[in-house]
Amino acid sequence: MHQFDKVEIVRVEHPDKSYEALEGMVEHVKNILQELQLPYRILRLCGGDMGFTSALTYDFEVYSTAQERWLEISSVSNFETFQANRFKIAFQRQRRKKPIGTHLKRKFIGFAKSSSRNFRKLPN
Questions:
Q1: How many Cβ atoms are within 10 Å of 94's Cβ, its own excluded?
Q2: What pLDDT, in 10s, does the model give residues 56-71?
């Protein structure tokens, strides 16, 4: 069993803007890592490495000189309609003030591990 503390960021977005929003979340994490001046890399996960709920996931890793390996520090995913369907998050498209159908929103989850153990492992 693996246990760690983390902070989750949840974002609900219109389907037409879901991948644009995902890229914005990736840029946000990238900027944080750059400001901290940490050596990092971004991995776009293939289908076999993602959970079945995710349509696209990026993992962020920082290099630990103490352990001489890359450590996952954050992850950002687009769940498309999977999570929205589970939570029944929807909206109605309208044309000239008439509803033309109900559509599911898109949900994203980003997380960052927040345990002091991770920061002890990072290079000085």
A1: 10
A2: 889 999 999 999 999 9
Nearest-angstrom CA–CA distance, 45 and 61: 12
**Chain centroid to CA 70: how far?**
18
This prediction has a pTM of 0.70
Query: Which residue in 21, 40, 54 sits closest to 112, CA to CA?
Result: 40
pLDDT in tens, 71-99: 988 888 887 776 666 667 776 666 666 55
Classify strands 98-104 and 90-95 as parallel, antiparallel or unpaired: antiparallel
**Which of helix, strand or coil describes residue 60?**
strand
Distance CA 45, CA 33 (A): 19
In this structure, are residues 22 and 76 in contact, taking their beta carbons and an 8 Å threshold? yes
Residue 98, burial from CB neighbour count under 10 angstroms (0-12, 13-18, 19+): exposed
How many residues in the chain? 124
pLDDT digits (tens, 9 = 90+) for 4-49: 677 777 777 777 888 888 899 899 889 999 999 999 999 997 766 6
